[in-house]
């Protein structure tokens, strides 16, 4: 077997076999991004930041379906099958490039409206609503307090109507010693939530971008391999021999 065809077949078979694993990884990444945004959706008004995650999940579904097609087409050296597989790889490659572009665009926009939207939610904190639970969850999970820092609560209705105290979700440890009084900062998480939330979302998006880039590179070499096999088998069937034969 021609070395070029053998190498190309090996690449395509490997690509076909990892389609399912890659699809599972991409599905996990997309779901993880959506879950991470979903936990803090009260603070994020621009829902278009979820577009990369939706694209990732869509790509993973396609990869599961067409993994078998690539394997069969490569083994049989079917020109029609390989052409179809090439179109599949190219479409997925284009979708992954689009996801990368969207990620770069929205990565810079995350912080733009975060402070304003978070301030609106924190101001409406009353200890009962769904937004209140979101604030408590945010402050507990990220170990933060207020938008910029714990003193931000002094501008809210909650602070003024509860004896100048912050919510108990600001406490480092939920003990009887911590009552939310701002004159006991050693018992409170004093760092603001905006910086921590922004960093969390940036890290999640960066992780997703690295995964997408890695699989996009694999798809690129897959397309090259399809071209090599198609050209070589076409030459053999037409009776042409390479010059070095």
TrEMBL record:
Alphabetical UniProt keywords: Membrane, Transmembrane, Transmembrane helix
Alphabetized InterPro entries for the sequence: Tetraspanin/Peripherin, Tetraspanin_animals, Tetraspanin_EC2_sf
One GO CC annotation: plasma membrane
This protein's record includes keyword Transmembrane helix: yes
UniProt cross-references to CDD domains, sorted A to Z: TM4SF8_like_LEL
Segments crossing the lipid bilayer: 12-34, 54-75, 82-106, 204-231
Subcellular location: Membrane
Pfam families (UniProt xref): Tetraspanin
Topology in the lipid bilayer: Multi-pass membrane protein
Family to which the UniProt record says this protein belongs: Belongs to the tetraspanin (TM4SF) family.
Annotated protein name in UniProt: Tetraspanin
Source organism per UniProt: Eleginops maclovinus (Patagonian blennie)
């Amino acid at each position: 077997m021609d070395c070029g065809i053998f190498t190309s077949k090996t690449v395509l078979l490997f690509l076909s076999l990892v389609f399912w694993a890659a699809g599972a990884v991409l599905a996990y990444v997309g779901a993880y991004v959506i879950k991470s945004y979903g936990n803090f959706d009260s603070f994020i008004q621009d829902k278009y930041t979820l577009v990369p995650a939706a694209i990732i999940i869509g790509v993973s579904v396609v990869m599961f379906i067409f993994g078998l097609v690539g394997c069969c087409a490569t083994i049989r050296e079917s020109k029609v099958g390989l052409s179809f597989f090439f179109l599949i790889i190219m479409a997925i490659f284009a979708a992954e490039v689009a996801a990368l572009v969207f990620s770069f665009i929205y990565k810079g926009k995350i912080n733009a409206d975060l402070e304003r939207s978070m301030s609106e939610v924190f101001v409406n904190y009353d200890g009962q609503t769904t937004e209140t639970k979101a604030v408590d969850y945010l402050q507990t999970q990220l170990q933060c307090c207020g938008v910029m820092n714990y003193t931000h609560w002094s501008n809210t209705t909650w602070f003024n109507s509860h004896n100048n105290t912050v919510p108990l979700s600001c406490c480092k440890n939920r003990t009887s010693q911590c009552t939310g009084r701002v004159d006991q900062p050693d018992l409170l998480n004093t760092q603001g939530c905006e910086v921590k939330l922004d960093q969390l979302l940036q890290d999640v998006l960066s992780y997703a971008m690295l995964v997408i880039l890695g699989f996009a590179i694999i798809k690129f070499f897959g397309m090259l391999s399809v071209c090599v096999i198609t050209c070589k088998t076409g030459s053999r069937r037409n009776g042409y021999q390479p010059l070095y034969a």
